[in-house]
Design brief:
Elements: E1 3-7, E2 10-16, E3 31-37, H1 39-50, E4 55-61, H2 64-75, E5 80-85, E6 89-96, E7 99-105, E8 124-127, H3 132-145, E9 148-153, H4 160-163, E10 169-173, H5 174-179, H6 184-193, E11 198-202, E12 208-211, E13 217-220, H7 236-250, H8 256-270, H9 276-279, H10 283-292
Helix pairs in contact: 1-7, 7-8, 8-10
């Protein structure tokens, strides 16, 4: 086992349409894609596409969609450890104007306890907050074993605060700042207080606000991909996570800035393609993307900006 990713499996149906019909109306989409989905799941596929196939502990149902997913993982030589559920989960995704609307159908009622896995040779653990019991167990186990632990903090969950105690690299979404009623700068302070060695907030086209190994805070601007080239932003953040975990394993002597530079180009490639599978870059794709697009310095987040705090929201 090179790495372990823990998450929730979705089958994503992504389509391009101008509107969602209601009542008895119908419409025809301009294009569509069907692929694997889920935060840590997509990150695992991204890592595998770049050259290191991690093990994946994720929900799997004994139904048609579950078997479809197993075939998808086999194509990328990803060993899947099943956390059985009764029904597969689905996401219906409509990208439009650089945003994406999502309807999810989720079964996260796991029928069996956390399976014991042999972590011999494991170099990294990546979590997205799903499977809270498994996330806590393996985060603690990996921290004790000196294995790199990473968290995609896309939203507030029941054990987020406790889990962060065992996380080395925590890259969270703007949504988590809103849910915890923290400014972006306050989020970095909070992550430092929980002991995270590397922390950051992803801000889409405004870049990444983060702190490095020394605790120094800075902004890494996004790459300037023209708006007309952006097709589907869904899953780009997951690709970002999978790419930096890959880079940390493949190039462990490099500073984290270099891992995030590679991940930034991976996500810039991803947003130009429809559906998660088509969005996965190779190393050659990443190099070409880095060469093609400059940094979007004019649109980057300004550290002095302090958005107003908003009320605490429940977990999503």
């Amino acid at each position: 086992m090179d790495a372990l990713f823990v998450g929730q499996t979705y089958i994503d149906v992504t389509f391009l349409a101008d509107e969602i019909p209601t009542g008895d109306d119908k419409t025809v989409a301009r294009d569509y894609a069907i692929s694997f989905g889920g935060n840590a799941v997509t990150a695992a596929f991204a890592c595998a596409k770049l050259g290191i196939a991690p093990d994946l502990l994720t929900s799997v149902a004994d139904d048609y969609l579950g078997r479809m997913f197993i075939d998808m993982a086999a194509k990328y030589t990803i060993p899947v450890h099943h956390r059985k559920v009764r029904e597969s989960s689905l996401s219906f995704i409509m990208p439009r104007g650089g945003k994406r609307a999502i309807v999810r159908c989720r079964d996260d009622h796991y029928l069996h306890p956390v399976p014991p896995l042999n972590l011999t040779g494991c170099r990294a653990l990546h979590l997205d907050g799903h499977q809270a019991d498994a996330a806590m167990h393996y985060a603690r186990t990996c921290r004790e074993a000196g294995i790199l632990t990473s968290l995609d903090g896309g939203g507030l969950r029941s054990n987020t605060h406790e889990l962060l105690e065992f996380i080395d690299v925590a890259i969270v979404a703007d949504r988590l700042c809103e849910q915890m009623n923290l400014t972006h700068g306050e989020m970095l302070t909070y992550l430092k207080s929980r002991g995270c060695r590397i922390g950051g907030v992803t801000l889409g086209e405004r870049g990444l606000l983060w702190y490095d190994e020394t605790g120094a805070e800075s902004v890494m601007p996004a790459l300037s991909v023209p708006a007309e080239a952006v097709i589907d932003t869904n899953g780009a953040g997951d690709t970002f996570h999978g790419a930096y975990v890959y880079s940390a394993m493949a190039r462990p002597d490099l500073p984290w800035r270099e891992h995030f530079i590679l991940a930034r180009a991976a996500s810039a490639y991803a947003i130009q393609h429809l559906g998660n599978e088509a969005s996965l870059p190779t190393l050659a794709d990443i190099a070409a993307t880095q060469a093609a697009f400059p940094e979007n310095r004019l649109g980057a987040f300004v550290m002095e900006d302090a958005p107003q705090k908003r009320g605490l929201k429940s977990a999503g």
